């Protein structure tokens, strides 16, 4: 008996056990074991049957029936029947796989000679082999009643018992969302069908960001609820996985790809573009504004004098205040100087015309001369324009060498072949078009 009790204690306190739960409140147990008397050591066989009812996380109520048969030296096969109403104290919660317990309660015993109220107490353990089936093992003490034995001795017969058996839990677990977790334990009772859940019945959230894996576009990396669980390192509202510019500075407006807005497409983000409406194709500076080479406030693409500071009113060109002038009299007119074909030096006989010009200028310091150059149409327009400039330069060089300061000489823009005075289809006409003309002006 001592060995059997010791074995029961070891099982009860070294194993993890289950029991009836709040989901399955009823249990039926069927077992068999041995019983014996404490005073004379007689032993018999003890089948038992019980019906259990879940009360709370700590207590079950059990209606149990034990029978004693084949007892030593007893002539009758059935020598006792005992019914108990036991309260079972569970020593671990429902989350464990195995569970120990204590039990005790009043009973009603009938043996061969008498019937009376008695009680039992003991300990046990249950191990669930499946969701509904458990193996149990328990040992206990039965307080007997006074009776007269077969040999005429009257006394109280106290018993011990040890049984093993199976318990079958009854009751259907309600699981509204069919996720395998009963509604009573389900913290998320409306989980969509087919979604993997944890022990609490809630959808699995691998990265712990509050967005369940089944709706998380980035299930292994913690992110933002607003971005379906994906992170946004630069905080621009575009998830990193979709962000083509993941290092955009804080506060900058971005487009759908996460890159800084650049409305005028000049390569400078609107956030730092001081001229966000620059027209397409215009050269810009580091601030996104059109280049203004001369710094006069007129962008080069609008500036008619981009290398010389001017005014906005004069399209970027400087305003030159010219002195009032009057055209000189006809007697001070100087004939044009002519040039040979493709030559920048004037014809040798033309020097006398320049001499006349110099004499007129020396006679009156208030006189100035403007020069205009022309060419025939032989060659390209660009070549003739350059040739015209060289012809003007050669005449100016002669005028200066004769003592006229450069301040009294104005060079008009070379006209090339654009202003012919004769027909370029003849040699004579072309000869008349290869010229530098003079305009003498008196400055008041």
SSE order and pairing:
Blueprint: H1 2-14, E1 26-37, E2 43-54, E3 59-69, E4 78-90, E5 98-111, E6 115-128, E7 133-143, E8 146-148, E9 154-156, E10 159-170, E11 325-327, E12 337-338, H2 351-363, E13 367-373, H3 381-401, E14 409-411, H4 427-433, E15 435-443
Parallel strand pairs: 13-14
Antiparallel strand pairs: 1-2, 1-10, 2-3, 3-4, 4-5, 5-6, 6-7, 7-10, 8-9, 11-15, 12-15, 13-15
Domain OmpA-like: 326-444
Membrane topology: Multi-pass membrane protein
GO cellular component, one term: pore complex
Characterization of the model:
This protein is an alpha+beta fold and 444 residues long. The protein folds into three domains: 2-170, Porin (Beta Barrel), CATH 2.40.160.20; 277-321, no CATH class; 325-443, 2-Layer Sandwich (60s Ribosomal Protein L30, Chain: A), CATH 3.30.1330. The chain has helices spanning 2-14, 351-363, 381-401, 427-433; strands at residues 26-37, 43-54, 59-69, 78-90, 98-111, 115-128, 133-143, 146-148, 154-156, 159-170, 325-327, 337-338, 367-373, 409-411, 435-443. The strands form three sheets. Strands 1-2-3-4-5-6-7-10 form an eight-stranded antiparallel beta barrel. Strands 11, 12, 13, 14 and 15 form a five-stranded mixed β-sheet that branches. Residues 326-444 form the OmpA-like domain. Keywords: Cell outer membrane, Ion transport, Membrane, Porin, Signal, Transmembrane, Transmembrane beta strand, Transport. It holds the Pfam family TSP_3.
């Amino acid at each position: 008996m001592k060995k059997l009790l010791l074995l029961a204690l070891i099982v009860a306190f070294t194993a993890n056990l289950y029991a009836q739960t709040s989901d399955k409140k009823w249990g039926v147990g069927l077992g068999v074991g041995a019983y014996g008397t404490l005073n004379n050591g007689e032993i018999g066989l003890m089948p038992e049957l019980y019906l259990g009812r879940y009360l709370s996380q700590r207590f079950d109520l059990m209606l149990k029936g034990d029978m004693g048969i084949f007892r030593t030296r007893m002539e009758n096969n059935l020598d006792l029947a005992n019914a108990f109403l036991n309260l079972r104290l569970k020593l671990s919660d429902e989350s464990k796989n195995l569970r120990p317990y204590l039990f005790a309660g009043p009973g009603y015993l009938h043996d061969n000679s008498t019937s009376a109220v008695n009680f039992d107490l003991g300990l046990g353990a249950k191990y669930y082999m499946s969701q509904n089936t458990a193996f149990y093992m328990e040992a206990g003490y039965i307080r007997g009643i006074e009776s007269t034995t077969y040999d005429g001795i009257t006394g109280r017969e106290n018993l011990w018992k040890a049984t093993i058996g199976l318990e079958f839990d009854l009751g259907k677990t309600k699981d509204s969302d069919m996720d395998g977790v009963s509604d009573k334990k389900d913290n998320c009772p409306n989980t969509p069908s087919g979604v993997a859940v944890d022990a609490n019945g809630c959808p699995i959230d691998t990265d712990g960001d509050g967005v369940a894996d089944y709706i998380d576009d980035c299930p292994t990396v913690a992110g933002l609820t607003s971005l379906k669980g994906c992170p946004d390192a630069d905080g621009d509202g575009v998830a990193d996985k979709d962000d083509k510019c993941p290092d955009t500075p804080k506060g900058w407006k971005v487009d759908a790809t996460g890159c800084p807005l650049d409305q005028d497409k000049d390569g400078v983000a609107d956030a730092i573009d001081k001229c966000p409406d620059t027209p397409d194709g215009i050269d810009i500076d580091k601030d996104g504004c059109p280049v203004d080479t001369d710094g006069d406030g007129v962008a080069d693409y609008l500036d008619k004098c981009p290398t010389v500071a001017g005014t906005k009113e004069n399209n970027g060109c400087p305003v030159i205040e010219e002195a009032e002038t009057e055209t000189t009299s006809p007697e001070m007119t100087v004939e044009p100087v002519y040039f040979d074909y493709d030559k920048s030096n004037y014809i040798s006989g033309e020097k006398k015309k320049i001499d006349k010009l110099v004499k007129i200028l020396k006679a009156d310091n208030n006189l100035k001369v403007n020069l205009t150059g022309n060419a025939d149409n032989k060659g390209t327009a660009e070549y003739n324009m350059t040739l015209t400039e060289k012809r003007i330069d050669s005449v100016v060089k002669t005028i200066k060498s004769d003592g006229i300061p450069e301040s009294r000489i104005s060079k008009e823009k070379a006209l090339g072949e654009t202003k012919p005075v004769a027909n370029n289809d003849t040699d004579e006409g072309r000869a008349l078009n290869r010229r530098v003309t003079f305009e003498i002006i008196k400055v008041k």
